[in-house]
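User: I want to check something. If I give you two sequences, will you return the structure for each one separately, not as a complex?

Assistant: Yes, each is folded on its own. Here is the first sequence with its structure:
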Amino acid sequence: MELSWKTLRDLERSHGAAFFLLDLDAFRANYNEFLGAFRAIYPRSRLAYSYKTNYIPRLCREVDRLGGYAEVVSAMEYDLALRVGVEPTRIVFNGPYKREDDLERALLAGSIVNLDADYEVTLLEVIARRHPQTWLTVGLCCNFALEDIRPSRFGFDVEDEGLDPVLARLRAVDNCLVAGLHCHFSTGQRSVRSYAERTRRLLDLAARCFRDHAPRFINVGGGYFSKMSPALRRQFACPVPSYGEYAAAVASEVAAAFPGADGPELILEPGAAITSDVMRFVAKVIARKRVRGRDIALVAGSIHNVKPTLHDKQLPLRVVGAPGERTEAAAQPVDLVGYTCMEHDCLYRDCQEAVRPGDFVVFEAVGAYTVVMKPPFIQPAAAIIAHEGSTFAVARRAERWDDVFATYSFSASEEALPATARRAAKARG
């Protein structure tokens, strides 16, 4: 959707000088394209959307509507999945930290729980004794060496038959079913070769662990590259594979291992791959100045809104100019800086577009981790405006003072507060 200055000005009046725009049509297209690439090769593929990447409820509900699973790594995310209407049997519960009551709830509800460490096996044994009449279904997160990837901290070390003792403990539990294998690797490379290798390793382990029958699922995890503009792609030192290239690397291996119609479900856990390019961040240009030979434009956002992981990439952007003449000074290269008091708060270095106060700067490719990792540092979180075509709707209102400080304890007696604070508290009701 093309954005005019008038459209952005109207949104600013309703939602503040900075806000996100969420393109639901683009999200659906990414979901269908990603999953379609895998199903074209292996029809029993299933997408489990990574909530931790972007847990806007509108997105999570859309995944469920499209037939996908919810991939969660905490009780908070598990509760979100239930709140948006996901059936517990369609929730994949991963992550290194699962409390006993959270684990018990998910197991009893029939969710897909991938165990990560020995302490979880011990918890499962306790839970199984408490509920001897209920089948508890689990998967195992597997840790193994991959070429060009630093050792992962997640899962059970499966080298040198390291998985056998874990399997023996679980199979000794009368009401426990080990249904599949999972892996989770975090790497900057994200190469096709890496995904092919991890898939082969999981399939080899499955052949060893499930000798009499196929596993219910093989889960190769997430971490796939997203779609991106040529300018952003050039900033990566490695190739950026397409959805189809990932599918050829992963689904082809599974299809070759299980050529029949009764093979395991292939579970994929994309997050950034399908969300990164479906959100934009809009920030109004507040002021411009020159300091010691450096041109600086202050915008109504911060680096935490566009790249909270503090990566060094220059995100695609465009300037939507306010009506009026562009001066020569406005056309000088400028650093776009944020509202915080931190020197590193630079959203874009050496912007070549003409920038002046009253303009709007629109950052692309901000759909991954920006919403979930933005801290309540100096300013509350910005609004999120969803759009389908030219129709806008609030997906999240802008946070307010009360949202940030609702969990804090203040003085029990208003009389102990300064007069200005008493007046503010009274005004808030």
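And separately, the second sequence with its own structure:
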Amino acid sequence: MAEELVLMDNVSKYYGRVRALDGVTFRVFKNEIVGLLGDNGAGKSTLIKILSGAYRRDSGEILINGEPADISNPRDAKKYGIETIYQTLAVADNVDAAANLYLGRELRTPWGTLDDVAMEAKTREVMGRLNPNFQRFKEPVKALSGGQRQSVAIARAILFNARILIMDEPTAALGPQETAQVGELIKQLKKEGIGIFLISHDIHDVFDLADRVSVMKNGQVVGHARTEDVTKDEVLGMIILGKVPEKAIPGPGAMQTA
């Protein structure tokens, strides 16, 4: 059995009388990429914000490595090894890669000054593992390409031993070459044992990268399936109609048939 890193079990969230999530159950295993799909308003963003600590769930349970987890804020999420890379990346454009990786967690010398040498050395080590072609360590991040900026954001997330990575639209606004580059980064993270929660509107990206796909609609899970067991058209049917193909596992949001 694969090691289960995350179990979100029967999670619900309300905004006043509006139920944004209705009994959602979701799993991520070690060495696994799970794609989360659904139209706008399906509940994807609410679900990831609960796991990342930005929102609190109203009911349900979160287990990390099989143990109940109390995630009330982003600091709690980081404590459990959960890191989030949002579509906007939230990198500091005016400083270089090392300063971004250690932003707010800077290393200092015994004299209390910034240890720039140690931070750059560790940055080169992490970036070399992720993207051996990255060489622009001294330039401000605003001078980097979209793919290189994504590399910096990923390196920052894994620098402090993240085991669970939430990636929100990681290839949005990237060209084909940079999309392929980021795809290789994601596959490398999977090889290192990280469980990846991939949110995307691009079904092609999901099929290229994910081991499993989960589809949400109207705050519920329509179904889960291994990408090798379903076609893109079948997944589109899940997104648009809530129709679950034969080899998928239906959820509460699946279209009911007579």
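Because they were folded independently, the notes below concern the second chain alone. The mean pLDDT is 89. The first helix runs from residue 44 to 51.
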